[in-house]
C-alpha cells in the first residue's frame, strides 16, 4: 500500500511554499493526488471590529480574499510545474473541523510546525495536535525553519511498545520500504527487561521488507526523553522521525511535558506522528 492522497495545509505563512513543495515531492514519489486545504485563523474576523466599524471590516475581509487568491494561484502554479494531479479546497466554518474532516479522506496530512515569529502561521490553539488526535490519519510535521533536502532516506523510529508507536510504524510503511537506512531507537524503562523494547518490531519490519538496525539507551532521571531522541536522530543525519503521539495523557503532557510535546515544539526535521 502506498500513499495515494496527500493533504497539505495552505495559508499565507512564510513556510507555506516549503510545505507545498514538500507535499508535491511526496506525491511525485508515490504518484499521488494532492489536496491543497486553505485554512487561516478566523477568530480575528469576529472579534477585531465593533459592529459600527463596517469600513474597516470590509477592508480586512478584502485583504483576506486577496490572500486566498494569491495562495490559490501559487498552489496551482506549483502543482502544474510539478506535474502533479491536485485540487484546491477552501472550506468555511471551523478550521479544526475542516482539517479533521478533509484529513480523514487522505492517507497523510502535511502540516507546519507552530512558528511564534510568524503571525500568519497561527491557525488555532493546539491546531496540529488536535488534528493528530482527531483525524485518524498520520500527520507529517514540517519544521518551521531549514531546508528539506531529502525525505525518508535515513529514518529514525522512536519505539516504546505503545499502541501509538505501533500505529505510527504501520502508517509509515510506504516510506520505510523505500528508505536506505532505518534505525529503531528506544529509551530503556527497566534494565531487567528480558528483551529490550524494539526487538519484536525489528522482526515485524523485516517481514515487511524493511531492514532496520536497533539501538537502546538507558533512561536518565531528569533528562528530556524527546530531546535525547531528537539529538541522536540529528547526530545520525536523519531526514525523518517517526513517533506515536500521546501514548500518555495529552493533558498531562501539556502540563508536564513529554516526547510528543517536545517533538511538536522543537523538532528540526520532518516528523510523522500517529495516534
From TrEMBL:
SUPFAM superfamilies linked to this entry: Adenine nucleotide alpha hydrolases-like
Q: Which Gene3D superfamilies match?
A: 3.40.50.12370
Pfam family of the protein (one): Usp
Annotated UspA domain ranges read 3-143
Q: Where is the signal peptide?
A: none
Q: Which family does the entry's similarity section mention?
A: Belongs to the universal stress protein A family.
Q: What protein name applies here?
A: Universal stress protein family protein
Amino acid at each position: 500500500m502506498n500513499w495515494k492522497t496527500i493533504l497539505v495545509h495552505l495559508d499565507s505563512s512564510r513556510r507555506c511554499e516549503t510545505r507545498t513543495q514538500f507535499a508535491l515531492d511526496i506525491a511525485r514519489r508515490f504518484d499521488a493526488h494532492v489536496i491543497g486545504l486553505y485554512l487561516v485563523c478566523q477568530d480575528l474576523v469576529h472579534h477585531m471590529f465593533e459592529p459600527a466599524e463596517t469600513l474597516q471590516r470590509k477592508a480586512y475581509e478584502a485583504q483576506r480574499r486577496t490572500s486566498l487568491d494569491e495562495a490559490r494561484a501559487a498552489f496551482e502554479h506549483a502543482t502544474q510545474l510539478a506535474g502533479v494531479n491536485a485540487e484546491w479546497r477552501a472550506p468555511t466554518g471551523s478550521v479544526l473541523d475542516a482539517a479533521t474532516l478533509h484529513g480523514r479522506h487522505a492517507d497523510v496530512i502535511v502540516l507546519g510546525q507552530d512558528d511564534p515569529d510568524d503571525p500568519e502561521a497561527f491557525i488555532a490553539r493546539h491546531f496540529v495536535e488536535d488534528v493528530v488526535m482527531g483525524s485518524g490519519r498520520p500527520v507529517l510535521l514540517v519544521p518551521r525553519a531549514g531546508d528539506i533536502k531529502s525525505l525518508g532516506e535515513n529514518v529514525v523510529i522512536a519505539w516504546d511498545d505503545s499502541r501509538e508507536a505501533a500505529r505510527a510504524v504501520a502508517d509509515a510503511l510506504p516510506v520505510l520500504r523505500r528508505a536506505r537506512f532505518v534505525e529503531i531507537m528506544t529509551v530503556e524503562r527497566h534494565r531487567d527487561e528480558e528483551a529490550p523494547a524494539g526487538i519484536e518490531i525489528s522482526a515485524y519490519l523485516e517481514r515487511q521488507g524493511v531492514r532496520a538496525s536497533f539501538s537502546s539507551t538507558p533512561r536518565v532521571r531528569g533528562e528530556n526523553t524527546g530531546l535525547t531522541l531528537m539529538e541522536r536522530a540529528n547526530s545520525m543525519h536523519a531526514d525523518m522521525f517517526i513517533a506515536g503521539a500521546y501514548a500518555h495523557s495529552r493533558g498531562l503532557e501539556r502540563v508536564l511535558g513529554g516526547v510528543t510535546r517536545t517533538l511538536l515544539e522543537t523538532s528540526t526535521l520532518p516528523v510523522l506522528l500517529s495516534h
